[in-house]
Amino acid sequence: MVGLAVGVVLAAGSAVLWLTGSGIGAAGVPAAAAAPAPVAPPPAAVAPVAVSPADAPSVPVRVRVADAEVDAPVVVTGVDERGDMAVPPDVATVGWYRYGATPGAAAGSAVLAGHVDDRVQGRGAFYDLGDVAAGDPVEVTLTGGRVLAYRVTDVVRVPKAALPVDRIFARDGAPQLVLITCGGTFDRTIRSYEDNVVVTAEPVKGAG
Amino acid sequence: MRPRTLTGAFALAAALAVGPAVASALAPAAVAQETGSVYVVHGIPDTPVDVYVDGQKAIDDFKPISQQGPVQLPAGPHEVKLFAADAADGSGTPVLQASADVPAGGNVTLVAHLDASGNPKISPFVNDVKSVPAGQARLVVRHTAAAPTVDVLAGGKPAVTDLSNGQQKALEVPAGSVSAAVAATGTTDPVIGPADVDLQEGTATFVHAVGSLDKKNLALVSFTVSNLHSSPGGVNSGAPSGAPSGTGVPAWALVSALLGLVLAGVSALRLAAGVRR
């Protein structure tokens, strides 16, 4: 009898520990006020990839949309284990799809993706991407400090299943910059937002 | 090496529909659909050759252990003859000859190589140039050397096993550099390599083991086909922890609820125990 009670308490205690360990950090605190929660570094599923010196000058390191308070460091990413574009687990950083075009390339689509928010980490780098409007200027800084100027042509919210990936990730055609995050309703059954917010921008001629 | 004539036509595995054959190999194709892409690999050591297609010289002084292509050939059957590189023309006795059927819109490799016992032959292979999943590269390995069955090692571990002369195997692997080697089946002691192979994303690399183990002139001949990339399936850019900020059930609520359950449970147990006493 005593053993049973102790066991129940122990099991419940473990569950409590697990719960507090996994999610109590910034939970319940309004996102706007959330200080960066002291979470352990996430597993290196999307670890920045070493880039050879020859490529180094043309790798994006920062993206800024001043009108929407977007200003974030950029890291190099590829694909995740599901075959989707990998997004950095640190929501404060943005990932550049290294298999697509490099910003500044003569052709193709350069894709930057960042998280909108997270319960543990708070606001993501692209939290305000939905506030971006056509005509807004976008700046992409490359390794070495060169800044490329873009202007937003299009902001759309599309269901994830209908994301036009072949257009977004095109490796030929007119050069463009695509910024992607999540939006719409959060679907708790799949623990994911239902939509993507897609901002398309074109290079500003004569700039950069 | 004993020159010999290989008679008897062979047909390329025509995975794709064969379009109307065009009379001359050198006539310009009317439309793109009526041609196929052809690579040629020369894997017979010490034997430079001239290549004649349908009686016309197509490659002059083709060096051993090298490759050329792709060339577009009209779909349909072609006579391919290999003459010693110093032959006056394509009228004598060829070193090797074969009839190759080029499928319309297809992509094939003709490999002049040694069979397992060291006799020269021409083998056709269909090149798998289907698109590659995002982030990956295709590696196709072909055993076209005078050597027993081999394993292909990637990073020292077998990636392809039991490959024998005339066979090919395809792998789709994450893009990047891989240390590749060839070893006798069941061993890890390289007979070729190891060598670093850079597999770029969205490409297919075709690697041919050629030469002869006995004559200690085994080598690799490879080429890469680009622009086979695919788009990623999507972008999951929300809430890596599985819940968005602000709107989730607060963890303190879960914790206090659980504590309540535990207290209730313990009380119930005590009560039950009391009743029993």
Integer average pLDDT of chain A:
79
| Outline type of chain A | globular
The greatest interface here is: A-B, 64 and 42 residues
Tell me the span between the first and last alpha carbons of chain B: 99 Å
Largest sheet of chain B: 4 strands, mixed
Strand line-up of the largest beta sheet of chain B = 4-1-7-8
Q: What oligomeric state do the depicted chains represent?
A: heterodimer
User: What fraction of the residues of chain A are assigned to beta strands by DSSP?
Assistant: 25-35%
Q: What's the gyration radius of chain B in Å?
A: 29 Å
Low-confidence stretches of chain B: 1-30, 248-253
What's the total count of β strands of chain A?
10
The level of helicity of chain B is: under 10%
Poorly predicted spans of chain A: 1-51
Determine the mean pLDDT of chain B.
83
CA-CA gap between termini of chain A: 76 Å
Walk across the major sheet of chain A and give the strand order.
1-2-3-4-9-10-8-7
Global shape of chain B: elongated
Topology order of chain A in helix (H) and strand (E) letters: HEEEEEEEEHEE
Helical content of chain A (DSSP H or I, runs of 4+): 10-25%
Question: Could you describe the 3D structure shown?
Answer:
- The complex is a heterodimer of chains A (208) and B (277).
- Chain A has helices spanning 2-23, 165-168, and strands at residues 60-65, 70-77, 94-97, 109-114, 117-118, 122-123, 137-142, 147-159, 176-187, 192-203.
- By secondary structure, chain A is mainly beta.
- In chain A, the strands form 2 sheets. Chain A has an 8-stranded mixed beta barrel. A two-stranded antiparallel sheet of chain A has the order 5-6.
- In chain A, a hairpin with a 4-residue loop joins strand 1 (60-65) and strand 2 (70-77).
- The longest helix of chain A is centred in the first third of the chain and has 22 residues, at 2-23.
- Chain B has 1 helix and 16 strands.
- The relative contact order of chain B is 0.14.
- At the A-B interface, helix 1, strand 5, strand 6, helix 2 and strand 9 of A face helix 1 of B.
